[in-house]
Each structure stands twice: as structure tokens, then as C-alpha cells.
Write the C-alpha cells for this entry.
Amino acid sequence: MITNNTDPRIKVFLGVTVAVLVLGFAGIIWAIKSESAGSESKGTPRLVLETDKFDFGEVSMANGLAKKKVKITNQGDGDLKISRMQTSCMCTKVVLDAAGKRSPEFGMPGHGGGGSSGWSQVIKPGESGELEIIYDPNAHGPTGTGLITRTIEIFSNDSGQDGTQSTITFSGNVIK
């Protein structure tokens, strides 16, 4: 117990010690709250495709590659992270242009079109990018004519769920 005849330096020392302890605990509590608030999702992304289905119509082997651009938009309020893309056939490739960056070329896994492991691209809320879909009608050789249907799969954190898959399907009729 501190009495009136206690050395004033002890009173000052004890007062400063108590103040430092209180401020230290308050700082720790504030840091913990800030860290947990920062780790929470800052909104939910929402991937919206301009179209999820289209038809190239007649695709001439003589004219080479057929290309189509499809707009991809984040209509959510959180960052949309595209983690990878793939196609259903080696004759099809897909590239994402967003936020001034161009992705590697993605194709059919196991056929040299797996893209880049570790690659990802973020589309901010309200922003858009373009998927360039590239179909090579000559990939199956000179007898590869007729009706085709192919898919492009986009893996993202759509709706806040990592690994969500969105699909674009296209068709066409390959002619010589």
C-alpha cells in the first residue's frame, strides 16, 4: 500500500508502469481486431459473361484461325480472382486480357495447353476484361470437317467460392 510518506518517485514509477501496461494491452487488442477484420472478405465477387454460348457458323480451314472475344465483368463488390482456364480440345485456346495484363495461353490440359501454374488475374469490382477464344480448324487435319462443339472453363472465386467453374460453349461447322 502506498502511503503519504512513500517516496514520490515510487508513485511516479508505478503510475507510468500502469499507464504503459494499459496502453500496451489496448494496442494488442486493437491489433488483433484490425488483423481479423482485414482477413475477412471485403465483399463478394460476381462473374458475369457477355455470353456463355455462341456459334462460329461456317469455319473455313483455308481461312485459318477463328477468333471471338467475350467480355467478362465483375459485377460483385469483392475482387474476382481468375485462377486458371482450360478448354475441351487441343484445337481451342483462351487468353484473358484484363487490367492491362494478358494471361498466358490456356488450352486442353495434358496437351500442352495447361497455361501457367501459379498464374492468376484479379478483376476489380465493376471492371471488365476480355476473353479471346481461338479455334484452329486445321488442328485435326484435312479430314477434320463437320459440326463441332467445344467448351472453355474459367475457374474463379465467383460468389466467394474458390474453384467455381463458369463455362462458355461454342459450336461451328468446319469446311475445307
